[in-house]
Amino acid sequence: NWRRPPEEVKFLMGLFMEALNKEVRSLHQHQIRLVMIGDRSKFDPQLVQAIHEAEKLTQHNTRLTLTIAANYGGRWDILQATHRMLQAHPEMIHGFTEQDLARYLSMHYAPEPDLFIRTGGEQRISNFLLWQLAYTELYFTETLWPDFDDEAFKLALKSYHARERRFGRTSEQLAGKHA
User: Fold this and answer.
1) Residue 116: in which H helix or E strand, if any?
2) What is the distance between the alpha carbons of residues 101 and 151, in angstroms, rounded to a whole number?
3) Where along the chain do its domains lie?
4) What is this structure's pTM?
5) Residue 179: pLDDT band by 50, 70, 90 thresholds?
């Protein structure tokens, strides 16, 4: 949050840089690809360079992808995707599909989330993955993030498994009664 006191922002960016430098080799050794999504324009040039180098080092790793959202907003993502799409295909200004635009979103490489867990008692998505969360199941818990342990995760999964995922359809449609 850029509205925090400048010294706090500087401290947090320093922590970010330190953690990135400390962990990137381990990620690479474990075949984990690192992807950063978000607007990097406010970051210190050294941090932007470190992010670029970490992504480049791990770009061919295939075991797992770790996505870190930093200075990311869902509205920003949709706007940037629209700009990128229209720059690449100016003719699309006259019409395009959801699939056309989705290819330009920050997380185009990943499936849409099945479950979104929000800790700390907040019951909002706070401009996070607005496009991708369209049919995602939402789970809210009072548990604070540092205290979100295996038991808390199991409760979230239990709640998720008790739900019927309809993706905009009715239960009858899913059962094949009114397809």
Assistant:
1) strand 115-118
2) 38
3) 1-72
4) 0.83
5) low
